[in-house]
Design a protein that fits this description.
Radius of gyration: 25 Å
Number of strands: 19
Number of helices: 27
Helix content: 40-55%
Structural class: alpha+beta
Strand order of the largest sheet: 10-8-9-1-3-2-18-19
Shape: globular
Largest sheet: 8 strands, mixed
Distance between the termini: 21 Å
């Protein structure tokens, strides 16, 4: 896994500095600490910071084709590169390295943009066509790997992380008020938007071409939907057998590496299935990693211990305390490059550090299963509310929600009053395009009342719900409820938050590559063909996964209810908002200077967290404080005091120079 960056003069005629891309790479060397390489010409330059995993001795980038007309920098893995290489060799292509990077380059040379449909992997890539003076950029189907770009001052710049773009002269560093509105509503911006004005991300499942005077984007994949005539027509038993074969092969492909591969083990169903498949079929001496919490309400270590004993893995874990969460938050914001409403990325950052301390570069994880097989409460909640909406006066139907949120009903009369108020559903609500999610989004949006008057004035006339609705398929309301819920969850939460802030960014902060078998596109497309009730059976989530793989696991894990991954917020911040860096960022002076929030309202919220520890803060208050604090951190790190402008250029071990269409390759390092 790596980091990439580059700049193309589109209208500007000033030659590019040879030091520009090395300076961009210096900002992302945590993504690729093993070696850096660059391609330079007067009007185009690109580079790569490499984390060597496949083809250790021969994988320095950029890599060119036989005649030097095409050059690639690449961040990711094409897991089926062995099979693709065999196909290309038969077609006459010659290879100089053992890397999947060179396979992808020749695949593009043979098939053009349609090559992306052949790749089973996770990637962000840039290919320079020196003859046509055209840049080709692409991102994997789910956006597991990031790719950002901006067009300013007659230049097109791209990079794996936004901080690299801020090194380019003329690229502004300014937080977008509309982006903050989206983050406080959806937990993330709506792609292609980022939190910074003028900086966008290439959408998952898309590619773009950039040349003299043109920039065009194209979709090559989207989450599939199959109507009842296109669905799986086999039996449930046959579906289980097919799912077993597909997921096992997805795991097999993701174990391909020239370095040791480990696995995350949370104690939940999904990571347990992946770990069990590895130990059963491929590696019975597997190294596994997990995090434990000092706060017992968040800890799953009892289930981790059960599975380790059952499978016999070589296991190690890190205990995460509230103090560590607070202390590590600035580093996490530096790597995530966006405000957060949850502290959940921080323990994953600490976990990835543990893995690297054990000298592992690759782990397999269970992410993606909840979105594909209906594991989250949002799927069940939508199903119950839709059922309730048919008979809104029913007193029995809403009580199904007690099965989802039993902790709300420790006081039955108060709990049911809350239920009726918060979840009440009218018949007409069921035809709302955003039915499954809007209730939650409305609840989160209440915290935008903390915005400053100046910021709120910038939002007049903006409706982020309309933006979501405008991007939905034309037949969206004709689709079944499960599919509608899944489309919103995958398109907004999975790709832009979970795979980023809780995935790539905190793992690559410690030079660690995560691989996700459940997001093998073959598994996803097969799951899309299955009836919804095979995935969410009544209110039993991930039903077919449990039936297919439950025999590999202890019953206590195979049948345990879904425990959403959470990390302490109130516990990390209560009675500690007086700490030096937090006190400064939340002070009236700092809040007023940044200008995003209303100082008096923030002071009132902070005072609530300074009360006696026995006084519980509500969920919205937890999110509000986290969002304000991390917005202030984002402003401080990237707008007010960005140290990247003083960073020394990365040292190159490979330099490809093009001058007058003459290519020269050197190894200055």
């Amino acid at each position: 896994m790596c980091g990439i960056a580059g700049v193309l003069n589109t209208l500007q005629h000033n030659p590019l500095s040879e030091q520009l891309v090395p300076r961009m790479l210096a900002m992302i060397q945590h993504r690729g600490p093993d070696a850096c390489g660059a391609y330079w010409s007067p009007d185009f330059a690109m580079g790569n910071a490499r984390l060597s995993i496949i083809g250790l001795a021969s994988g320095l980038q950029p890599i060119g084709n036989e005649d030097g007309s095409l050059w690639i920098v690449y961040n990711g893995e094409a897991f089926n590169y062995v099979e693709l290489k065999e196909e290309l060799v038969k077609a006459g292509h010659r290879f100089r390295t053992d890397t999947d990077t060179e396979v992808v380059l020749h695949l593009y040379e043979e098939y053009g943009p349609s090559c992306l449909e052949k790749i089973n992997g996770q990637f962000a890539l840039a290919i320079w066509d020196a003859g046509r003076r055209e840049l080709f950029l692409a991102r994997d189907r789910f956006g597991i790997r990031p790719l950002f770009y901006c067009e300013q001052g007659g230049r097109f710049s791209f990079a794996s992380e936004i901080k690299s773009l801020f090194v380019v002269p003329g690229v502004a560093r300014e937080i977008d008020p509309g982006a903050l509105d989206e983050i406080f509503t959806f937990w993330t911006t709506l792609p292609p938007r980022t939190v910074f004005k003028g900086v966008q991300q290439l959408l998952p499942g898309h590619y773009m071409t950039v040349g003299d005077g043109h920039v065009s984007q194209h979709r090559y994949w989207s989450l599939p939907y199959f109507n009842k005539f296109e669905r799986w027509d086999g039996s449930f038993t046959e579906a289980m057998e097919h799912l077993d074969a597909l997921l096992t092969d997805a795991v097999r492909l993701r174990l391909r590496a020239d370095v040791p591969v480990g696995a995350y083990l949370s104690g939940g169903l999904d990571s347990s299935i992946v770990t069990a498949l590895i130990t059963r079929h491929f590696n019975n001496r597997l190294k596994t990693f997990s995090m434990r919490f000092a706060e017992s309400a968040f800890d799953e270590s009892v289930f981790q211990d059960q599975l380790v004993k059952h499978l016999g893995t070589d296991h190690c874990s890190v205990v995460v305390s509230s103090d560590q969460i607070r202390e590590s938050l600035p580093a996490v914001i530096w790597h995530c490059e966006t405000p957060l409403l949850r502290t959940s990325p921080v323990p994953l950052y600490l976990l990835s550090r543990l893995v690297r301390e054990h000298r592992f570069k690759v782990v397999l994880t269970g992410e993606g299963a909840d979105e594909i097989f209906g594991g989250y409460n949002i799927f069940k909640e939508a199903k119950v509310r839709h059922f309730w909406g048919r008979q809104p006066d029913s007193t029995l139907r809403p009580r199904l929600l007690e099965k989802l949120y039993p902790y709300v009903f420790t006081n039955p009369s108060r709990g049911r009053a809350f239920l009726y108020q918060f979840f009440a559903t009218r018949p007409e609500d069921r035809s709302n395009l955003l039915f499954s999610h809007q209730l939650r989004w409305n609840n989160g949006r209440r915290n935008t009342a903390l915005f400053s008057d100046a910021l709120r004035s910038c939002l007049d006339g903006c409706d982020s719900y309309e933006r979501v609705a405008a991007g939905l398929p034309a037949d969206f309301l004709q689709r079944e409820l499960f599919s509608r819920t899944q489309t919103l969850e995958v398109g907004i939460f999975l790709s832009n938050y979970l795979l980023s802030s809780q995935g790539d960014r905190v793992a690559m902060a410690n030079s660690l590559e995560i691989r996700l078998p459940f997001l093998d596109y073959r598994v996803v497309e097969f799951a899309a063909r299955l009836p919804a009730h095979w995935k969410l059976h009544g209110l039993n989530e991930k039903y077919i996964l449990k039936k297919t793989f439950g025999g590999l696991l202890p019953g206590s894990i195979a049948q345990r209810p879904k425990q959403p991954y959470r990390a302490p917020i109130r516990e990390a911040f209560r009675n500690t908002v007086g700490d030096s860096w937090m006190a400064e960022l939340l002070s009236e002076a700092a809040i007023s200077r940044a200008g995003y929030f209303h100082p008096d309202r923030v002071a009132h919220l902070v005072s609530h967290f300074r009360k006696d520890p026995g006084v519980a803060a509500g969920e919205n208050q937890n999110m509000a404080l986290t969002g304000i604090l991390t917005t202030q951190l984002t402003h401080q790190l990237f707008v007010e005091d960005f140290h990247g402008l003083q960073a020394a250029p990365a040292t190159l071990k490979r330099l490809v120079r093009e001058d007058g269409r003459h290519i020269q390759v050197s190894h200055p390092g």
